[in-house]
Amino acid sequence: MGTMPESLHIFLPPSLVGESALSNFDIDPAKVQLAYAGGVPDPMVLQIGQLFRGLLNRSLEPTDRLYLDGIQTALAAHLLGTYSSVRWQPAARAPTVDPRRLQRVFDFIEARIAAEISLDDLAAEACLSAFHFARMFRKATGLTPHRYVTERRIEAAKEKLRLARSSLVEIAFDTGFGSQANFTRVFRKMTGLTPGQYRALFTG
User: Fold this and answer.
1) For residues 100-111, b (16+ Cβ closer than 10 Å) or e, as one string?
2) Cα 156 to the chain's mean position, in Å?
3) Mind listing the GO molecular function terms for this protein (predicted)?
């Protein structure tokens, strides 16, 4: 079994953060309620904790008590300045998308591969705003919506090229590229080959 992690509990005297003490420093007591910040790494708190730890297990000298008061004040100031409820907000949870909605988007793309597909179209299928959909889609797939649609168009074009039943112009329109020139440009950029060169690999 591994060793238990070390834990240090620090209790601040109420006099440090009481209403009268704060008022002396022109701090509004109504704005210093601390937010819960569990599990948040804080180098400053760690450093102050190590200073407290150095005073444990030995009797305190008068100068140590003065030192201890200073550490307590520094900790109180750091907590109030960093974790007051009006300043600190927990990190936003990473957005996720329902797998069923994501599958609906995939199906929509496959069904509309020959047509123009906009970000708004895809977001509507997921019942999300375009902004939130784009973020969630990239997190789920590792690709932007535009990149994913382009890659699916290229895969559909490859299949048609291997069958060798359609002209390059027909394949360009059937896979949503709009023109043979655009189809050739995107295909070569993503595969390193022109559509004609790719077809020749399977029909040569």
Assistant:
1) ebbeebeebbee
2) 31
3) DNA-binding transcription factor activity; sequence-specific DNA binding
What tens digit of pLDDT does each residue of 166-200 get? Answer: 999 999 999 999 999 999 999 999 999 999 999 99
Structure tokens that stand for 36 in this block: 């819960």
Q: Is 178 exposed, middle or buried (0-12, 13-18, 19+ CB in 10 A)?
A: exposed
Q: List beta partners, residue 34.
A: 84
Q: Nearest to residue 84, comparing CAs of 8, 122, 29?
A: 29
* CA 148/CA 144 separation, integer angstroms: 6
Look at residues 182, 114, 181, 106 and name the one whose alpha carbon lies nearest to residue 153.
114
pTM: 0.54
